[in-house]
Amino acid sequence: MKGHIHILGICGTFMGGIAVLARELGYRVTGSDANVYPPMSTQLEQAGIGLMPGYDPAHLQPAPDCVVVGNAMSRGNPAVEYLLNSGLPYTSGPQWLAEHALPGKWVLAVSGTHGKTTTSSLLAWILEYAGMNPGFLIGGVPGNFGLSARMGGTDFFVVEADEYDTAFFDKRSKFVHYRPRTLCINNLEFDHADIFDSLADIQRQFHHLVRCVPGAGQIVYRAHSPTIDETLARGCWTPTVTFGLGEGADWRAELLSADGSEFRLVQADRAVRWPYLGRHNVENALSAMAAAHHVGVSADVAAEALLQFRGVKRRLELLGEINGVAVYDDFAHHPTAIKTTLEGLRSRGAGGRLMALIEPRSNTMRMGKHRQQLAGSTAAADRVYWYQPADMDWSLQQVVAASPVPAQLESDIDQMVADAAAELRPGDQVVIMSNGGFGGVHKKLLAELENAASNE
Fold first, then answer.
1. Is 296 exposed, middle or buried (CB count within 10 Å of its CB: 0-12, 13-18, 19+)?
2. Considering the entire predicted model, what is its pTM?
3. Pick from 112, 36, 31, 102: which is nearest to 284 by CA?
């Protein structure tokens, strides 16, 4: 046993992955968190990692060899204050990863405002399919692996590279710690208003990341993206490859079906049919295939891998179909992600109506930074239920009033479930959108639909 680490904020997707890697590397791992819910809590329990509710200083007694501090921790937290006052050794998750898991690895990092988790999962799976046995740390649970992190058996390591800050004591973006040799930049928009004041602030962090990629590496980025072009224009010392659906991209696809479930990969001149929807997912696939090509995977092998990709939990995940109503769970928490997900479902042409239940839970949403874009982001739906969190300091009523489709505001989860279930009919699709637990609305809606079906 290499020693004992205790992780504060262990149930976050990133920190939960750190816990799994540490356990695999031979550390004794324990952790604390205030919010424990699947899929991460399930993964940690299956790995035999002890979870402690809350942030009691007693969790740090007897003293672990090192405390790994999640970026959700802040000054004033009882465990943090005890940690500092006691002089215990501590570090951040990204720093721990860089020092203990990534040395000697060929790091393939996937960055961008949207699509990081899906693209990272696709990339790890393509490498696995090609027999390369990669390690990975992903902010979700890929269906092909059933866990969010592993060390792997070769030098290749895929990491989801987040621009959010590292810890209360390290305000750099997480991704500057990873020193990738292959870097994907999927897109670049304003987000994380709690730590960035402007898009220019985010571009500066991405420029810092670009500075870390060696000249012998490669940067894969979305073609025809002014925000990425501006960032690279500040200085780029690495060969680049572009991807996209438009003319001029190095890795290009042509949609063969409006919903994105079938496309032609121009590089391999072959049609790909897969069960995933939306232009954004085709672009995610192009990004992953281009990155995999940099480490030796042919376009043909990558395209074959797509056919067996099993998706990611909470990324347009079908939870069930009851009495002809399909219920999806999606992690969308930005207007662009809401828009592309709904358009993907709409383009499927299932025949019934499309309904969305949305919780604006991210810090940026709660601050109201995207309020002008929210209403328009739901135009592809037939009806929207907006949930007003009790601790949000602005009213979603203005979003409802500006909605291009019928919309209503809800402040009670059970009432929202009852209202939505009463509206749903066989053939309809409903997607639940939140980056958190959403008060258990997923199980509650499925149970309500089951109950209605049994009473018919």
1. exposed
2. 0.80
3. 112
pLDDT > 70? residue 230: yes
Q: Rg of the Cα trace of the chain?
A: 22
- pLDDT range class, residue 440, cuts 50, 70, 90: confident
SS (H, E, C) the chain: CCCEEEEECCCCHHHHHHHHHHHHCCCEEEEEECCCCCCHHHHHHHCCCEEEECCCHHHHCCCCCEEEECCCCCCCCHHHHHHHHHCCCEEEHHHHHHHHCCCCCEEEEEECCCCHHHHHHHHHHHHHHCCCCCEEECCCCECCCCCCEECCCCCEEEEECCCCEEECCEEEEHHHHCCCCEEEECCCCCCCCCCCCCHHHHHHHHHHHHHCCCCCCEEEEECCCHHHHHHHHCCCCCCEEEEECCCCCCEEEEECCCCCCEEEECCCCEEEECCCCCHHHHHHHHHHHHHHHHCCCCHHHHHHHHCCCCCECCCCEEEEEECCEEEEEECCCCHHHHHHHHHHHHHCCCCCCEEEEECCCCHHHHCCCCHHHHHHHCCCCCEEEEECCCCCCCCCHHHHHCCCCCEEEECCHHHHHHHHHHHCCCCCEEEEECCCCHHHHHHHHHHHHHHHHHCC
Q: What gap in Å lies between CA 265 and CA 268, rounded to an integer?
A: 6
> How far, in Å, CA of 304 to CA of 219, rounded?
23
The mean pLDDT of 338-355, rounded to a whole number, is: 81
Going by their DSSP bridges, the two strands 407-410 and 135-137 should be labelled as unpaired
Q: What percent of the chain has pLDDT over 70?
A: 94
CA gap 345, 332 in Å, rounded:
13
| Residue count of the chain | 456
Residue 44: which pLDDT band, with cuts at 50, 70 and 90? confident
